[in-house]
Structure formats: C-alpha cells, structure tokens
Amino acid sequence: MNERGLLLSSHSPAMAREEVLEELWTAEETGMTLSLSTLTRTIHAGPSDGWGGVTQELIERGWVTLDGEQLRLSEDGQREAREVVRRHRLAEVLFNQVLELPMETTEAEACRLEHELSPQVTQAVCSFLGHPPVCPHGRPIPPGACCALLSRRVPSLICRLTDLKPGERGRVVLMAPRHRDRLDQLADLGVTPGAVLTLRQRKPSLVVEVDRTLLALEDEIADGIYLRPLVEW
Amino acid sequence: MSQVSHLARRTAADPVLLVGNPNVGKSVIFGALTKTYVTVSNYPGTTVEITRGRARMLDGMPDIIDTPGTNSLTPQSEDECATRDILLAEPDAVVLQVGDTKNLRRVLYLTAQLAELGRRQMLVLNLQDEARDLGVRVESGELERRLGIPIVPATATRQTGLDAIPRRLPQASRADLLCAYPAAIETAILEIGAALPPELGPARRGVALMLLAGDRTLGEWVRTRLTHAGVELVEARRAGLERALGCSTAIAISRARHRAVSELLREVFHVNRPRSGTASDRIGALSMHPVWGIPFLAVVLLVAYGFVGVFGAGTLVRWMEAGLFGRVVNPAATAIVNRIIPWSWVRDLFVGQYGIITMALTYAIAIVLPVVGTFFIFFGLLEDSGYLPRLAVMVNRVFRTMGLNGKAVLPMVLGLGCDTMATLTTRILPTRKERVLVTFLLALGVPCSAQLGVVLAMLGSMAPLGTFIWAGVVAGTIFGVGWAASRLMPGRGSDFLLEVPPIRVPSVANILIKTAARTEWYLKEAVPLFVLGTLLLFVLNAIGALPRLESLCRPLVVGGLGLPPEAADAFLVGFLRRDYGAAGFFVMRQHGRLDGLQSLVALVVITLFVPCIANVFMMIKERGIRGAVAMVGFIVPFAFAVGAALNWALRALGVRL
User: Fold this and answer.
1) How far apart are alpha carbons B499 and B431 in whole angstroms?
2) Domains along chain A?
C-alpha cells in the first residue's frame, strides 16, 4: 500500500493522529495489538519513522496507552478512532457500492474523506446509505447516533428497492443500474427519480407497482434503484 | 412537403397510424375502425408484423396501420423500433394515439414525443372501465383544452366512445406539450436541427432529440440523411452535453419530459379513493404468488389438458375421424372417385393408401384440426386474461439456467400452439443471444399443438409411466441443451424487465374471432404441406421407392430405434411437418403395429424433430441461412441419437409400457 504515496509529510498533525488511531482500531478489531515498530512499518498511510512522534503525542493526550511494547487505545482514543473508521467505511460504501467506483479509487478517496467529513455530513451520508452495517470489505461500520435511532424502528432515509418489504412504498431518489440502457427503459416505463414505487412481491420474481402499472424486475435491476421509503403511520 | 402530398392531404385520405403503449387496446380499435380482424393480445409481441387495413369507418376510407406497442420513440426493442421507423417513414400520416386512462403519465410521455415530431394527432383515452374501478378520474375536457388536440374517452372492448373517432379525427393537430429542456440541450437541438434535411419540416426537433439521446438504432437512417459533418456535430454535442449535465443526455431529456407531464397530470389526473384490491388484483396476485402460484399453474395445466387433450384430441377427434371421415367423407369420396375416374392410379391418388383425401385431409382435418382449434381457444383465453406475463414471473428463475429470462416463456408457450408463429415472436426478446436460443429450443423440443394432440392421444393409450418418461426426456433435453448452448454461445442475455398487465375477463367474441383467424392461418399453412407430403409418399410408393427407402433406413429405424420398417414413412413426412409424422405413428399404433415402448421411442424422436418446413423457412428468415442450417444439422441427428439411447435404456431396464 506504500505506493499510494500518502506520506506522513503530507498529513496535518490532526490527520496524522487519525491515521494512527484508525490503524490501531483496525488491528484491535481483529483481536491483534501493534507494537510501535510494527506500526511504523505497516501503517496503511505509508511507513515512516515519523509515526513514532505522532504516537508519542497520542500517548501524551491519553488516547493511547502502552502495555509493555504493545499500543492500546484508551477509552477516549476508542471514541475518536471509532468516528474516523466510521467515516472511512461509510465513504467506501458510497464510492464503491453506490457510485460504483473501482476499489482503488474508493480506497484513496475514503482515506482523504475520513479526515474531512463533519459529523453532520457523516450522519447525512449514513442515512442516505440506509445505515449500512458493513463496508465493502465486509468489516463492521461502527454505528453512529443516527443508526441507534434506526434500531428504534425509524426508517432509514434511503434504501434499495430490494430492501423494501412487500406492501411498502418508496419514492425513487437515485437510479444506478449496471447497464445504462436499462435506465432509459425504466424511465420510459415511468420508473424515474420522483416516482413512487410499491413493492408488491419479492418471490418468485420481484414485482413493483408504479402509478397503475405492474412491472416484474430482476433483482439485479431492483438493487440499483434507491428509494426514500414512505411510511404510513 | 411537396405540393402533391399537400393536395392529397386535403382529400382526407392521409394514412392513419395507431400508436400507443403495449396492451392498451390498439388492435381492438383497429378492428372497430376497419371491421376486419387482427390478433389482439395482452403481451407485447403479437403485433410484431405490422397490420395494415382500410379504415372503412373513417371519412375517405384511409389506410390505417396498427403499430407495435411502444413506451417511447427511443426504442428498446425491435417492436418499438418498428413503430419509430413507421412514424418516420409516414410523415403525412395522422396519429391516432391510444392510451390507458389509468396510466395517463405514460400516455402523455409518448404524446410529448409525438408533439416533438410535429405530428398531427388525436388521443383516445381507452380502458375507462378499468380506470373507474380504480377510482381514477381524468378531466378529459381540461386535458383537451391544454393540449389542443381532440380527446375521446372510450372503452373499446365494450364499443363505447369509439363512434366519436370519425367525427374528431379531422380536427387532429399537434399537441401543445412542449418540454423545457436545459438551455444547453435547446441550443444543441437548434444546431442539429439546422443540419438535418429541411424536408423533415417540424419533425426536426424530435429527430434532433433522438440523435442527442444517442439512439443507435437510427444508424442507417442517419447515414442516408446526414452529412459526415452532421454526424460529427451530433457526436460532439452529445459528448459535450454529457460533460456539462453530469448525466447522459438521454436521461436529462427523459427527466424534462417527465417534469412536463407531471405538471399536466397535477391539473387533470385525480385518484378519488385509495387503491384497494379489486377481485382482478387478488387473482393476479394469487397467480404469481410464490406458493399459490404453483397450484394455480397446475390448475391451468389441468384445464388445458382437459380441454385440449381430452375434449379436443379425444372426443372431437373421435367424432371427426371415425364419425365424419370414417363413415361419411371417405366412403362418399371413394364411391364418387370410383364412379367418375376410370384410372386406378388416379383413384389411388385421391382415396388410396396414400390418398389426398383418405390420408392428407383425414390427418389435417380430422386428427389435427380439432386439437389445434381447441388449443387456440385456450391460448386466446390465456393471452387475453393476462396470465402469460404472470407465468413469466413464475418461471423466471428456472429460465435463468438456460441463459434466458421469464420473458422467453411467452414465445415458448406460443410454441405449444405453433412453433412457426412463436419463432416470429422471438423478436420481443432484447438480445440476439436470447433470440437464437429460443428459436433453437422451439425447433428442438417444444411440440406444437397439432403434434401435442396426437402425442397425448397416443400416450393416453399406454401406461402413465410413458407420459412421464416422454415429458421427462423432452423437458430434460430442452433444459440440458439450453443450459449447454447458453454457455457455449457468445453474447449476453438480459435482465428480466416485463410489464404485467391487469387480469382481464376475456371477451368471448374476441376469442372466437382470434381463434378463427389463427385456425385459418393454420389451415393455409398446414394443409398444403400435408398434401405435399402425401404426394411425396404416393410418388415414392408408385415408383416402388418406398420399400427401398425403408430398407435403407432399416439399420437406423429398426436397429437403432427398434421400430418396424414402415416407421420410416412417418419420419419421412415428419421432415415436412412433425405432427404429420406423429399422426403416422398414431395410425400405426391404432393398427397394432407399435407396442407401448416403440410408441414412446417414436414419439420422443418425432417431438425432437424440426417442427415443419414452414418453421425452417421462418428460421432462415429470422436467423439467417447459416444459423438455420446449423440448428437443423444439429437437431435431426440429435433427435435420432436421443431416441436410440432411450430405446436402449428402456430395453436394458426392462421397462414395459
């Protein structure tokens, strides 16, 4: 991953701290701990001895503790790291699964955005994506406050057509089918941003109602249709 | 336009084009205006061949053309392409747009595109009954005022509202439904419009939009009408627009159209009560329910078997063959021929063993016609009720194993009626690969109703195990070969995307007219081939070649398939029509020349045969000579190989039928 050239020198102090926190979170997630020397050699932002100074600073702030040779996140450190990781992985979902950018671009852009997104924007992105539980690599996305609301059965802002249950309705906000010609065809049938779709059934084939027309769709097509669910109270 | 066509226009004899979305009743209106019949049905595809007629109910009796249903003039299938091409080829024609009232959004989306082509048009808001049932109300007076075109509410199947069409059509004009496109697109429209041939007149705006949307199906049309610089201009503008708009031009265009239509809908389209499930809705949902859909299908099949298999192939055939032909026609014909024709070979030609009356007509009219007739009635009911697209929903996943999707069930089921008609209908499939696969599977394994009737009658005479083995081998072959072919063939299939029309109660009159039209088509198609086949056998028999052919085929027919040598006759005529071949086995079975096992082997081979000469011609027409030859070259040896393998396996296992 060194070739991405994200060298320590190009990082602001805050960014550099976040990189280390992220690295430690990722390691702890898989049940590992890192020593300072391992960290400086393997950090995904690009190995450099300079990470030693950054880590030292984190220890002084009380975000990282030393357990013998091994670095550990403190409670405060965990709170910070969790937010960085959350931003990174949400960005990955957005770029890779919604915008369908290649993984390489996704990675690079997510690494930049993780330092940039404000809490407000992060929450909006998370809601837009329907509070996804995992990133494209399959690693868990730490839930934010907005996701906790979800667990209290507040519907997500955006979901895919395939996420609806039969009988539920949603307004189309975004269409990202795999083949572009599908887009024109769906538009001709009235499936276009702004249209209200009602899912009639999932099996044996997905059937939706748009206006007063029934359409049978392949799941692959339905996967590319993003809706804002309409809830009737 | 030239002076001449202007004069022609004043005589009010400009052709009329029926244009509209699929399943909105265009064909019924065509029938009402021409008083002649065309196939009306519930799924896209049956009007692939353009139907022309003379609108006797309209002033000046203009030509009227029924175009395939389309949702847009930027086509997504060969059908839609045909409609667009006709519109461009008939610039003086008046457009009679037919729309489904409850789906006014899609109707007006098409109206907007017709307006961009500068077409004179009127609009029939059909299916008022269904709209009423759903609580949909359209203020057609207000819509008429806004669009400035005649609008006629109608329920074509009940003949209401149609009488207003002749009166209103002369007032047809261009719809006042202009979509506001982004400024960059408007500029490009003007630039490209200026590069288009001036004789296109007001159609230039619409054509410029089609070109900007990147419609590749316009290729040939563009090459003959646009200069090289013009083509480059189009490409440059489209690429520029995509960059500027951040999305494809086609999408930006369709968005602007939807916006314009939505604004109009707000004023004229009202839903008075929330959508509640009608009976037709509930039946519709049941028929494609993951669990209940299966017993539903079983009931449909059972009814089909009872009506076509038991009543058509059993009762009716008995009346016709033993009764009508056995007691009346054949004895009478024999008596007359014996009286008036002195030469014995001419007598044989008509009433001998291979006689035109005693063999060809008896087969065609007495054995096959009752089966085909009952099948067409049943298929008409399936079509008009809206069940077929629901069947597609049910089988989509199964068809995926053959590289196809649910949409392919439509030609496949039609193939159970007539493979030749079905081969024509493969045009509704979006990719070339799917069209080739379905053409191939139709020719290989889908028995047409004529043959199916004979096959079922024979299977009925043996143990039920025979029917299972036959169905298993045929279905297994279709899926196995389909699976292999879809993997060997280059190209890609398509995702399943199909409109499911509402469940409707079929009109008896419509079914009867349709069945009559199809039966007539069948008789014209099949009877000459039956006669031709009989003549072939007669000549071969007269010159003494038949025994030689039989002995030539002996190793294959007797050795490989374990059949009596005269079975070669049936295979021989099977090359002309496989149902004729099956009918030959039927007679052999009646005369006790085939035991159960032999019948089963013979039936499997003849089912896997190429359907008929007409089907081969259709394959050549649709898939090209090379494709057709390759398919036939595979199918014939393959059919015999499967038959030989089955014969060997059944004997090795000691199966008794």
Assistant:
1) 18
2) 2-73 (1.10.10), 84-151 (1.10.10.10), 159-230 (2.30.30.90)
- Same domain flag for B45 and B122: yes
Q: Are B124 and B110 in contact (CB under 8 A)?
A: no
Does B501 reach chain A within 8 Å, measured CB to CB?
A: yes
Question: CA of B63 to nearest chain A CA: how many angstroms apart?
Answer: 29
The ipTM is 0.78
pTM score, two decimals?
0.73
For residue B80, being part of any structural domain is answered with: yes
B288/A contact by beta carbon, under 8 A:
yes
Q: Is the pLDDT of residue B7 over 70?
A: no
Distances in Å between the Cα of B221 and the Cα atoms of B190, B231, B318 are 20, 12, 56
Q: Please report, for residues B67, B74, B88, B407, B424, the alpha-carbon distance to residue B84 in angstroms, rounded to integers and kept in the order given.
A: 9, 8, 6, 23, 20
Mean pLDDT of B197-223: 84
Tell me if B278 is assigned to some domain: no
Are the beta carbons of A215 and B498 separated by less than 8 Å? yes
| pLDDT band at B357; cut points 50, 70, 90 | confident
Identify the closest residue of chain A to B389 by CA–CA distance. Answer: A216
How far, in Å, are A232, B157, B370 from residue B167 at the CA level? 47, 20, 44
Q: Do B290 and A182 make contact, defined as CB atoms within 8 angstroms?
A: no
Distance from CA of B415 to the nearest CA of A (A): 23
Do B145 and B212 fall into the same domain?
Answer: no
How many beta-carbon contacts under 8 Å exist across A and B? 113
**What's the structural domain count of chain B?**
3
Are B396 and A205 in contact (CB < 8 Å)? yes
Residue B268 located in a structural domain: no
Percentage of residues of chain B with pLDDT beyond 70: 95
Query: Per the CB < 8 Å rule, is A204 touching B76?
Result: no
B586-642 pLDDT, tens digit per residue, is 888 888 888 888 999 999 999 998 877 778 878 888 888 999 999 999 998 999 999
Mean pLDDT of all residues in B94-109: 94
| Partner A, chain B 46-75, Cβ-Cβ below 8 Å | 71-72, 74
Of B117, B114, B251, which is closest to residue B196 (Cα–Cα)? B117
The pLDDT, as a whole number, for residue B554 is 83
Same domain, yes or no, for B439 and B406? yes
Residue-range definition of the domain harbouring residue B194: 183-250
